[in-house]
Amino acid sequence: MKFKRTERIGAIVKILSDNPNKIYTLSYFTEQFNAAKSTISEDLLVVKNVFEKLHLGKVITISGAAGGVKYIPKTSKEENAEFLIDLCNRINDSERLLSGSFLYLIDLIYDPGIASRIGKIFASNIDYSDADYVVTMETKGIPMALMTANAMNLPLVIIRKDIKVSEGPTLSMTYASGNNGKLESMSLPRRALKPNSKVIIIDDFMRGGGTIKGMIDLMKEFNAEVAGIGVFISMMKPEKKMVEDYISLIQLDVEGDEIIVKPNRDILEGTEE
Amino acid sequence: MKFKRTERIGAIVKILSDNPNKIYTLSYFTEQFNAAKSTISEDLLVVKNVFEKLHLGKVITISGAAGGVKYIPKTSKEENAEFLIDLCNRINDSERLLSGSFLYLIDLIYDPGIASRIGKIFASNIDYSDADYVVTMETKGIPMALMTANAMNLPLVIIRKDIKVSEGPTLSMTYASGNNGKLESMSLPRRALKPNSKVIIIDDFMRGGGTIKGMIDLMKEFNAEVAGIGVFISMMKPEKKMVEDYISLIQLDVEGDEIIVKPNRDILEGTEE
């Protein structure tokens, strides 16, 4: 089959966009579209332009034997600001108030579109260049952790709370939950991580940081290094967390009937070009 | 900013592809690209061609006041066959055998790329035209259910096993688990589903069908109608399931050290054009 220029470009955009951080060789495209290398090279220049002009991320060229092009999702500061401000407005709704100063948020954090945007923001603000896995703990963080793993092109690892789960030999640990200081358990199959891995930890929520601290400790048991931590919502109180070096997208405080919620300034003014 | 034809086409492909089943008006694109309606109409014809020629799904035009174009992900039978056969080969590995005839599969089903493909296959084989939600039960089905919800452009609802979870007033139910007939519990916040909803149930695994049967019963308590059921792996035994009218992608049997695994013929010879 022969393809017109416009068709090839549309197709290349689709392939790269569906497979973030995956390297495609020039030969892959020449075979796919039955076209010369020079033709595909020109196409790729246009594709790069599309992504940059519309702030859709970057398409970069990797040279060498294992070379080719890959798409790196990268959200712009303006886009992030707009998205997070809108999300904060939706969170700031007294109908979301549950007893115990909790908020009903699962309609938002389980939403595939929102989870996908959150994943792209984490991928734009956390350095995952050496990372081997994205790690989260069940349950509410799974959708955004999966979308983060998708944007980073990394496998996802889910820590379970239930130690009865049968996934072969499993490493279990207790930790003090931030909510009430109660001892809770977390567990992960021995073979879930290869030795000496680097991991990115993603979770939906942080109060004191006890759960994330537990996850970091569990990673040590696997000889894994934590290369970055991303949290969707962090509570303003307590100010002192059990964890340092994390990024959070939204800061939250609930006092009685009052909800205080705002995007984290670090993300809005972040380190992007 | 002005855009060249090729750039507009690349950008339209990206926008549609990132947002399956979402309707975009002609005006959206004319404003985005500062171009005339006739120009965008021509672009859209090319875009439609790209998707059809490469079997990437369909871009359809919706007429009327709320009209526009939308992208419907649709996988081809050939693609599905190739993907599922490869997956079966990876499942058929004696190193995956756990005690109790279980298989270690979480490295596969938590993989974002695999979950995404599974989601698109479900979206290609289940009629979700009237559906309001994708529903799953924690934990292992969540990644593929999220990707299914993403492909269908529907919100995801996750049933919890833990009835202590604080998400406001919650409806809980016990059901007989297929594994051992033991009574287990499932729960869902009252406000997770709006009244008289239609739902698509997605789960990773089915032996006797007890869990899915429980989910169907729970849906009745919410006055919700189950419009379709998709299961990733169904065990060949018992042949008689507690549930009818489901589709499964892969059939599995484990006898001692022997793993029998194959794609479901219905999917390979499915109802697609």
Automatic annotation (TrEMBL), chains A, B:
The keyword Transcription applies. Residues 4-73 form the Bacterial purine repressor N-terminal domain. One of its GO terms (molecular function) is DNA binding. GO terms for biological process: negative regulation of DNA-templated transcription; negative regulation of purine nucleobase metabolic process. Keywords: DNA-binding, Transcription, Transcription regulation. Residues 110-250 form the Phosphoribosyltransferase domain. The keyword Transcription regulation applies. InterPro entries: PRTase-like, PRTase_dom, Pur/Pyrimidine_PRTase, PuR_N, PurR_Bsub, WH-like_DNA-bd_sf, WH_DNA-bd_sf. Belongs to the purine/pyrimidine phosphoribosyltransferase family. PurR subfamily. Homodimer. PANTHER family: HYPOXANTHINE/GUANINE PHOSPHORIBOSYLTRANSFERASE (PTHR43864), PUR OPERON REPRESSOR (PTHR43864:SF2). This is Pur operon repressor.
